[in-house]
Amino acid sequence: MSSRRDGEAWISSSDKRMVLTERQIRLLNETYYSRYTTVKKQINIPSQVDFGFRIVLPSETIIVESPIPQGVEVHSSSTPIEFLWGGYPSLGARNGSTEFGDLIVKVW
User: Fold this and answer.
1) What's the whole-number mean pLDDT along residues 20-41?
2) DSSP-derived pairing of the beta strands 51-56 and 61-64
């Protein structure tokens, strides 16, 4: 903290948060299904491990995962996110709006 000449102090803060855009997620969704092996390599997931994820928002849930075989152990993690709507052709009135939700990643 630094002081000003008149004796008052400056106070500052910062905020770190994960913001995902609709465009990022929709493109990853398309790539996940069309080039799954490439996506796994890009994000350093071993070849013998499978993964999927969900974006859970108040207005919509976006599911990007293949069917999980029965009897397989599944590990998951949830992270709070801010989701920015926009940049995708099918969008309408939500363009530029944000919602808070969760990113749930599963590996099996």
Assistant:
1) 91
2) antiparallel
